[in-house]
Amino acid sequence: MTEQKHRAGFVSLVGRPNAGKSTLTNALVGQKVAITSAKPQTTRHTIRGIVHRPDAQLILVDTPGLHRPRTLLGQRLNDLVADTLSEVDAIGFCLPANEPVGPGDRFIANQLAALRGRPVVAVVTKADLVDRAALAKQLMAVTALGTEVLGEGGWADVVPVSAADGFQVDTVSDVLVSHMPESPPLYPDGELTDEPEAVMVAELVREAALEGVRDELPHSLAVVVEEIVPREGRPEDNPLLDVRVNLYVERPSQKAIIIGRGGSRLREVGSNARRSIEALLGTRIYLDLHVKVAKDWQRDPKQLVKLGF
Ligand SMILES: Nc1nc2c(ncn2[C@@H]2O[C@H](COP(=O)(O)OP(=O)(O)OP(=O)(O)O)[C@@H](O)[C@H]2O)c(=O)[nH]1
Ligand SMILES: [Mg+2]
């Protein structure tokens, strides 16, 4: 009898903005570790989500969507992804089933082709949004892109998946595991992410603030947690954390949108974020949100550093 060896390694999920990388990360991990939204450029830094299986451990590195950079922020995000790719064991290239393979995908495919030697699994996401015939066509188009940029062998695998209804999520996991090196687990059992708490808190506020806003605002929003401190004088069995968070936008008009009439929108953002942060931290919190204008921060190197980029 041959004994199965334990495998463990790093997988970077890449793809165009909005391709479904973060949603797939959460589905594979089985819990929310990355925020998601219908707006492109939701993910702004790499997030590690950890998949624990009896036979393997996958450390998923969810990345910001890759695109032709138009701002300094866009450039930084692309550089971040390039750095990440040089350190992983395999790459999951996400392409949505419901959008034709386009120049944006080809741009990324060519960058991946330059990293010869690392297996690239093409993952056709959002399979639930198309019928079988359209899915088959898309799988062929994606396969063709693989042979076009990588030559004869093409992608290491091509797998359709729907993170929304769970279709083939286990298959994606199996395929990625098959490309991992033999290794003992790299993270302790039960750890689902290695994100610091403050980063998760900032992300949950950003997710709540992105809900329902118009298209140009999301890119202009940055969220920084100033402090998380226990409220003094609380009974031990009923603690309260004071969480102070700044939301930065680029223009006064955007500040007005975030705050809403009479502060109504900010209150709604606050109560939505508070619920998800309390679920994350397991204690009650008092969430204090402040909206500030940092003019054109996406283009200003000094401000980018201050905001954590
Ligand atoms: N129907 C359906 N929608 C999906 C699926 N996966 C993701 N979505 C939706 O697609 C949108 C983008 O998903 P994200 O996971 O945030 O995409 P992303 O690739 O991480 O985007 P960026 O971080 O902006 O690069 C969200 O509205 C998701 O709900 C899926 O399997 N089926
Ligand atoms: Mg994302």
Automatic annotation (TrEMBL):
State the source organism's domain of life. Answer: Bacteria
Q: For this chain's UniProt record, which GO biological process terms are given?
A: ribosomal small subunit assembly
Tell me the InterPro entries matching this sequence.
G_ERA_dom, GTP-bd, GTPase_Era-like, KH_dom-like_a/b, KH_dom_type_2, KH_sf_prok-type, P-loop_NTPase, Small_GTP-bd
SUPFAM superfamilies in the cross-refs:
P-loop containing nucleoside triphosphate hydrolases, Prokaryotic type KH domain (KH-domain type II)
The entry lists its GO molecular-function terms as: GTP binding; GTPase activity; ribosomal small subunit binding; small ribosomal subunit rRNA binding
Question: Keywords for this entry?
Answer: Cell membrane, Cytoplasm, GTP-binding, Membrane, Nucleotide-binding, Ribosome biogenesis, RNA-binding, rRNA-binding
Q: Where does GTP bind?
A: 15-22, 62-66, 125-128
| Residue ranges, annotated region (G2) | 41-45
Q: Where is this region: G3?
A: 62-65
Q: Where is this region: G4?
A: 125-128
- State the compartments where it is located: Cytoplasm; Cell membrane
What range(s) does the KH type-2 domain occupy?
213-295
Instruction: Kindly report the protein's main subcellular placement as a broad class.
Output: cytoplasm
* Pfam short name (any one): MMR_HSR1
Instruction: Report the leader peptide range.
Output: none
Era-type G domain location, by residue? Answer: 7-182
Region G5, annotated ranges = 161-163
Entries under PROSITE patterns matching the protein: G_ERA, KH_TYPE_2
GO CC, one annotated term: plasma membrane
Membrane topology annotation:
Peripheral membrane protein
* G1 as annotated region, ranges: 15-22
State the similarity comment: Belongs to the TRAFAC class TrmE-Era-EngA-EngB-Septin-like GTPase superfamily. Era GTPase family.
Q: How does it assemble?
A: Monomer.
What is its biological role? An essential GTPase that binds both GDP and GTP, with rapid nucleotide exchange. Plays a role in 16S rRNA processing and 30S ribosomal subunit biogenesis and possibly also in cell cycle regulation and energy metabolism.
Please give the name of this protein: GTPase Era
The organism named in the record is Arthrobacter saudimassiliensis
